[in-house]
Design brief:
Structural class: alpha/beta
CATH superfamily of the largest domain: Spore Coat Polysaccharide Biosynthesis Protein SpsA, Chain A
Number of helices: 6
InterPro entries: NTP_transferase_dom, Nucleotide-diphossugar_trans
Shape: elongated
CATH architecture of the largest domain: Alpha-Beta Complex
Distance between the termini: 45 Å
Keywords: Transferase
Radius of gyration: 22 Å
Largest sheet: 10 strands, mixed
Number of domains: 2
Number of strands: 26
GO molecular function, one term: transferase activity
Protein name: Nucleotidyltransferase
Pfam families: NTP_transferase
Length: about 325
């Protein structure tokens, strides 16, 4: 089986962090988003990983050094952002023979066992029940099988959202459906959508089952990212003891980090070689080689090699006085 991971987007909703790093390589709880995805796929019989890259493509090449856990890794470039269906069609050249294919979007984090994939006799798409179907591609079903797919419907009787995980017993059958969409210039919201290709797939008699997953995490913007990292920090809670500092679990603090006279946690990721002094930090992601001193941080993201140095305050506050500083809780 080949695993295809589209990762060509610019991640504009996570700027300024994505000005210098692709969204799938943003790290928390000790790993990048892509590494968290790959960890969930361990144990599968994978012949090759294929990354579809574009924006800051060199960083993907350098980050993974040619392989993933000893498995072959290759790259395909999407030079123009024309939609997910277009991106998937670009990997056709990597399939010299028909075989099964797993597509996982690079900002789709999940906690689901795929141990039975190789034994699965049918193609499937993973879905999750959502409160607001208008934000997602939505599937309609008859029993467990897909009958229709609509991209971000204004009104919907179904609340089963596609979560960005697709499995096909035959890659060639999917390519035929994508090819139909491309050749007939079928677009939704100006792009070639995978939902349109899958609609053609099921309308021409192909079976597409639904697989419901409960634990699915969106990393589309900073608030969603900070919420998602809470789950992973609970899983990978780790830290050592620091003199004159208090660590409030759960946290992920790399063993190379330096922490002095500070309170860190809960729900804080601290990456490699970061220095924190005289600070209070909670619900935040701190990148590698950052420097933080004399600050109170909450619901914040600091990138690699960033520096935030505050000034200790001395205040005389009289009776019945009040100072309220801005910020997010």
């Amino acid at each position: 089986m080949k695993v295809v991971i589209p990762a060509a987007g610019k991640g504009t909703r996570l700027r300024p962090h994505t000005f210098s790093r692709p969204k799938p390589l943003i790290r928390f709880a000790g790993k990048s988003m892509l590494e968290h995805i790959v960890s969930n796929l361990e144990g599968l019989e994978i012949s090759e990983y294929i990354f579809i890259v574009g924006y800051l493509k060199e960083q993907f090449v350098n980050y993974f050094d040619g392989n993933i856990n000893g498995k072959k890794l290759s790259f395909v470039e999407q030079k123009e952002q024309r939609g997910l269906a277009d991106a998937v069609y670009l990997v056709k050249e990597k399939f010299t023979k028909d075989e099964d294919m797993l597509i996982v979007l690079s900002d789709t984090l999940f906690d689901v066992s795929f141990e039975k994939i190789e034994k699965h006799d049918e193609s499937f798409v993973c879905v999750h029940e959502v409160k607001d179907p208008s934000r997602f591609g939505i599937v309609y079903t008859d029993g467990d099988y897909v009958t229709d797919l609509i991209e971000k419907p204004k009104e919907s009787k179904s609340n089963l959202a596609i979560v960005g995980i697709y499995y096909f017993k035959s890659a060639f059958e999917l390519f035929k459906s994508v090819e139909f969409v491309l050749n007939n210039d079928i677009k939704t919201a100006g792009e070639f959508q995978i939902t349109d290709a899958l609609n053609y797939y099921v309308k021409t008699g192909k079976k597409l089952k639904t697989l419901k997953i409960d634990k699915w995490f969106d990393c589309g913007n900073r608030d969603k990212l900070l919420e998602t990292q809470k789950y992973y920090i609970k899983r990978f809670n780790t830290h050592k003891d620091y003199k004159n500092s208090k660590i409030i679990e759960p946290v992920y603090i790399d063993e190379s980090a330096v922490i002095e006279s500070s309170i860190v946690g809960p729900y804080v990721s601290v990456d490699k070689n970061t220095i924190i002094k005289n600070s209070i930090i909670k619900n935040s992601i701190i990148g590698a080689s950052a420097e933080i001193e004399n600050v109170n941080l909450s619901f914040s993201i600091l990138g690699d090699q960033s520096k935030y140095i505050g000034t200790p305050e001395s205040i005389d506050l009289g009776s019945k006085s009040e100072i309220v500083k801005g910020g997010s809780e």
